[in-house]
Every structure is written in structure tokens, then in C-alpha cells.
Amino acid sequence: xxLLAHSYFMRHDPKQEARCTPYSPLxxxxxxxxLRERGHVVDLFDATFAETxxxxxxxxxxxxxxxxxxxxxxxxxxxxxxxEQRRNASFSMIAAARRRGSRVVVNGPDSTDRxxxxxxxGADAVLLGEGEAALVEIAAAxxxxxxxxxxxxxxxxxxxxxxxxxxxxxxxxxRELDKLPLPxxxxxxxxxYRQAWxxxxxxxxxxxxxxxxxxxxxxxxxxxxxxxxxxxxxAAMVAQxxxxxxxHINPGHVWFADDIFGLTAEWLQDFAREVARLDARTPFMMxxxxxxxxxxxxxxxxxxxxxxxxLGVESGSQKVLDAMEKGSNVAEARSATRLLKAAGIRxxxxxxxxxxxxxxxxxSLTRNLIAEEQPxxxxxxxxxxxxxxxxxxxVKAGLGERRNWRDSNDLAMLFEGTYGTPFYRxxxxxxxxxxxxxxxxxxxxxxxxxxxxxxxxxxPMLLATGS
Length: 467
Known about the structure:
By secondary structure, the protein is α/β, with parallel strands linked by helices.
């Protein structure tokens, strides 16, 4: 038997526990379905509602798998944060499985970025990138001999004899996504998810993915799993999954967890037609870019059932957007928001504070843009330097010992920025309050502006340049 698991304990993240918007571990469920196709017996430890790693140990003791695969949900933005809590939980799970004699493999953004840490924690192999195909190959190899070496498996990292690591040849990204099986939904306790959602939100939401990757080149965006490519399922297959989801789980809402849902208007129009043909229409939420929200795309989204679109607006300062190499402009943010609202779709924004060179004036431009266009909701973060990005290279000289947030509400500045963590937290809270209250609080903003110099970084270079 193969035991699949992930390390997202919702109770370890106070912000997420308070929000209570749990989603199924999609990557684990797809991997499980792929293993089943090849005749393997599979079980799942779903950490989402578990209390501690002790619950994982109880599952290990009941269903002792010769292979344990900790497959993080690579579609979920919470996984991409690579928080310290997730890493520590994963290390504890690796140790628990190894104590029971299991072979252990891991996959996720953090292990792909820092494989040696996971090997030193006891993992037999780190599966780079998407991971599912490598897992299937490993499962086949171990089914004939549980102690067989894994050196012939492409796309993994193995320990060497000097407490270091060695990489096997690269594995290409997953192609032909239409050939993948439906996620193994039966492995999760759907009723527990339903009860959590209904008790807090009076509706039940589920997650799907129509694509993998993002072709754009924002220089702060890490792409350790899917790379910069973009693989998309056919509109017909996505609509069929939506229909199957409606028949078997019947959520009242769907979150499409893609980095970009529907790259072209043509795909969205095909999707809307297939959804109508199959009577699969379910209100959904998705993510996109401001430059993609053209009239024909927005019309197709409305027809297909889009209820809420999250846009990576990031900043109201074109200077900051250009420094990020965002590939979009402020005018497009305005246009996208107005088009979505006119179509009856909630327009929500991701905002990023603290990018190098951002000044108080730039932050004020962001605040003004929010006030003028009135997005329905915002999510505010600070620039987060992840390995493999040009942004990480830009700021790595100013990185401290901490390289990851503790949990999703941390908002810690991990590099020497214009301001420190407390100031950005004040700005975040102010922006959230203005959006939620639907009005500007100029007095509070003026106080922030009056105090901003006192909050500037102690970095003399930044002070000298007026950044």
C-alpha cells in the first residue's frame, strides 16, 4: 500500500483557521488517481482538519505503507508560501514514517527549492516539479523490490554518501493534461469539508484546476513546480469534470486554483458553451491578469458562471509595476475592474507592498487607485523573495536569517526594504479597513504619512536615495 499525505494542518495557521475556507489537497488526489490507474492500493492522510502530527502517526500505525509520499498541494497559494509551519510539519512526518521503516518521498515548492533540507530530514528522495509522474515510476519500481535504488528515475534528488545530494536527469513537464484521471475525491472526507464551509459561510466550495503554469515573467514570481510554460486542458474536459463534480460532490461554489484560468477569450467561450451543454453551471472564483480581461473574455466568464475574479493588480504605481516586470499597466487594472463589475462579477485585487524602490508616494498611489476603482475585496501582501526568482537575486544581499514566513498572516519583511514589518502591517490593515468600510479614512492615512519617515529602514543607502 502507498500512503499519500500533505503537511497543511489548518489548525497550525491561525489566520486560515479563522477564515475556515478549506480545500481538498488536489495534487495528492490527482497523484492517487494516477497510482490507482496502474493498480496500486492507495490511502490518504488528509492533514487539513487533523490536530497534530500524532494523527499522522496513528494512520501510519494502522495502515503501514511501504511507501509514504508527502505530496503538497501545488495548486494552492498557501503551499507556494512555503511557511515554516508547513516545513516543520513535513519534517516531523518524514521522521515518523522513517521510524516505521517506510520509504519516504516528498514533493512541493519548498522541497523543490531546498531539497537538501528534506533529504537531511530523512526523505529518501525529493520529487522535483509536478512530481506525479516520478511518483508513479517510483511506485512501480518499489512494488517489485521495496529497497530498490531510485537512480534511474528522472526528475528527483537523492542523497549522496557525503551528506550532500545528487540529481537525476530532468523530467519534462506533464503534457496532455486531458489524459489525467479525475482526482480521487473518495479519499477525502467530503462531509467534513461540507460541514466546515456550511457552518461558517452557508455555502460549500470545492477546488479544481484547468491548467498548469503561467507564461508571464513577473520577476518576483517563483515557478518551481510548473515552470514558465502553460499547459491547458481542453474546455470540454474541464466542463465534464465540473459536471462530474456536480453529480458526485455537489458543491455550491468552485474555486479554480489555476495561476491563470482561461488564458484566451476563445478558450473561455468554448468553456461557457460546454458548461451550458452539460448543464454544469456552478458559481466559481478564479484568478487572472488585468491585461486578459477584455470584453469578450469577461462576457464568456459571466456566461460560464464566474462570480469572482482575483486580479494581480499589485500596485497603483506604474514605476513599481515596471520594476516588477509585471507586463501590465494601471489603465488595464481600471478597465478590467470596470468590465467585471459591469458584467455582475466581483472584481478583487491582489496588492503587493514593499517592492524595492517603492516610496510612500507609490503606496499612496496604490491607495488612491483602490479608492477610485473600489474593488470588491483585496488581499495585501509584502514582497516575498523566493529562490529562483530575479527578485531574490536582487535582494539576497539584504536577506536575514529568516527566509520564510511562519504562517500566512506573518507579513514579515525578509529583506532590507524601505520600511520594516510593523509599518507594512499598519498599511495593510488601513487598506483593508477602507475597502471593508467602503470609505476613505484620510485622518488615519495622514497620521501614517506623518510617521512614515520614522519607520524607514535603517539601511543608509535607502535613506540616502530617498527610497
